[in-house]
Amino acid sequence: MAWEIKNDRPVYIQLVEELEMRILNGTYTVGTKLLSVRDLAGEAQVNPNTMQKALSELEKKGLISSRRTSGNYITDDEKLIRDLRTELASNEVGEFCGKVKKLGITKKETIELINKEDF
Amino acid sequence: MAWEIKNDRPVYIQLVEELEMRILNGTYTVGTKLLSVRDLAGEAQVNPNTMQKALSELEKKGLISSRRTSGNYITDDEKLIRDLRTELASNEVGEFCGKVKKLGITKKETIELINKEDF
DNA sequence: ATTATTGTATTATATCAATAATACAGTTAA
DNA sequence: TTAACTGTATTATTGATATAATACAATAAT
Q1: Which nucleotides of D are covered by protein (CB under 7 A)?
Q2: Using the CA of B14, which nucleotide's C1' is the nearest one?
Q3: Do B101 and B59 fall into the same domain?
Q4: Which helix H or strand E contains B23, and what residues bound it?
Q5: Helix B37-44 × helix B48-61 angle, to 10°
Q6: Which of A49, A109, A118, B67 has its CA 20 to 30 A from that of B74?
Q7: Is the same domain home to B49 and B70?
Q8: Which tens digits make up the pLDDT trace of A18-35?
Q9: Domain of B68?
Q10: DSSP label at B86?
Q11: Which of A55, A24, A25 is nearest to A38 (CA)?
Q12: Distance from A68 to chain B by nearest Cα, in Å?
């Protein structure tokens, strides 16, 4: 699994985004146990403290729950996951449209550009 | 003119982005003189040194040229502006599509969401 | 019972972004 | 000629991020 951490933004933020993405898109299965903090840090090649910070952010959002001596677990609240996924998508669309609009690109042109993309 | 500087990313980067946007979308007219470093900093409510850093980045890109004791001038290279605008749009589209694809959203759904947007 | 593993807390250090306060040389405007 | 304004350079300080090295209590595994 690719952990593409750049150094243009805080690492722990990028870890939160990647972990959240994996939960929302189903890469990490609902209710299952995550790798340990140390193992996740090893995978992503970051300091364990940085990964710990990212995980605590995810717990604040309710996406994982940590059982102190057992491990971190993905939430089993499927509605929360659906809702956050929808919200994230909506935010991305809004942000993107704001940018291209500001660039003076029309909606029609935008859709043409997207149609050329491969997905 | 709105300078919406948040504190989630380096301020000077956000200044570069905003200034570049204004040049590429024609808010700042080709060949004309910019406000002074100090005045721009005042408008954006940032430290003059931070604005200076942003302007030096724009000069590296060729979007402005500074005449040492006269001021900063927008480039008159209209082709450069067109090309950078196209490149920026292309990058935004690519990045956006990558994200929604990763979220598991189809191209069709994406276009429907964009059609709901107002622009 | 003992050992290993878990999340978590603490402390220290290095780096970078940002701000701040000045300073200077060259040009323009008065 | 003077005075004001220009970009630019320098130095110092602050705060946030990241890393690092440990430590500890609770649990799981042996």
Answers
A1: 5-11, 16-22, 25-28
A2: C17
A3: no
A4: helix B11-24
A5: 110
A6: A109
A7: yes
A8: 999 999 999 999 999 999
A9: 11-76
A10: H
A11: A55
A12: 30
